[in-house]
Amino acid sequence: MNTDTSIEAILGDSFGYLFEKKLLKEIGEVGQMKQFPAQQTLIHIGDTISHMPLVLEGSIKIMTEDKDQSELLLYYLELGDTCAVTLNCCTTKAKSSIRAVTETETSILFIPVSMMEKWMIHYSSWRAFVLESYNSRLNEMLLAIDNLVFNNLEERVYNYLRDKAIITKSKELVLSHQNIADDLHSSRVVISRIMKKLENNHQIKQGRNRVELMKI
DNA sequence: ACATTAAGTGATT
DNA sequence: AATCACTTAATGT
Q1: Residues 126-185 of A with CB under 7 A from strand B
Q2: Within 7 A of a protein CB, which nucleotides of strand C?
Q3: Fewest C-beta in 10 Å: which of A99, A132, A183, A213?
Q4: Which nucleotides of B are covered by protein (CB under 7 A)?
Q5: Whole-angstrom distance, CA of residue A191 vs CA of residue A160
């Protein structure tokens, strides 16, 4: 899982159908593979980004943060994803406007910005990948905004739990009401009441620091 | 046994 | 829906 040969293997599996062999080889040569445990902050707001991440394993939570440290979840990055906001930061040398935290154990391949500019010019498959990725990130954000504006908190909480279950590939989640409140920019008390409701409607079962989804 | 942290509840805005 | 103040329950030392 951390030898050079398996970087190639993972690359082939995840991106083989996307990129030509020559580009895959360059990615393998230039990319730095790194592993992170769950719940590790990778990018703080205000950080300057020098490398672009390609997610090979696990998932990453992308969120905004305001002055009082309260957060709002924007979207998740999963296998084969890259961060659109980072793409922007890379090309314009701007500072990060988001925070990135690993949600599960994660393997990431870091690619220097200089390389990605070169590839944009020389590989149409790379260009297509970057544009596609930018597009799907934008769509996910639109969904998140839609959810935020048009759904009540109860639906937002349920959607949040469902998404989390999908990402961790488990119906049993380990998290506190406070965690949910932070991600959804709400308060613990309110979440507790909503969770009670969901439990009474047999949509979830819950205990201290754990939630089980009944349907998926 | 005691302290700490998570979750539940009624009242108020 | 948020905040406060307080209770109850679960866990760690």
Answers
A1: 176-178
A2: 1-5, 10-11
A3: A132
A4: 6-11
A5: 12
**Residue A50 has which token pair?**
């020098």
The H or E element containing residue A11 is: helix A4-15
Kindly list the strands in the beta sheet with A71-77, ordered across the sheet, starting from the edge strand earlier in the chain.
A41-43, A99-102, A60-65, A71-77
Q: Can you give the pLDDT of all 216 residues of chain A as single tens digits?
A: 444 556 777 777 778 888 888 999 899 899 999 999 998 999 888 888 888 899 998 999 999 877 666 788 988 998 888 887 777 776 777 788 888 999 999 999 999 888 888 898 999 999 999 889 889 999 998 999 999 888 899 999 999 999 999 999 999 999 999 999 999 999 999 999 999 999 999 999 999 999 999 977
Q: Which residue is nearest to nucleotide C10 (CA to C1')?
A: A208
pTM of the model: 0.86
A41: CB within 7 A of chain B nucleic strand:
no
- Measured distance CA(A58)–CA(A98) in Å, rounded: 19
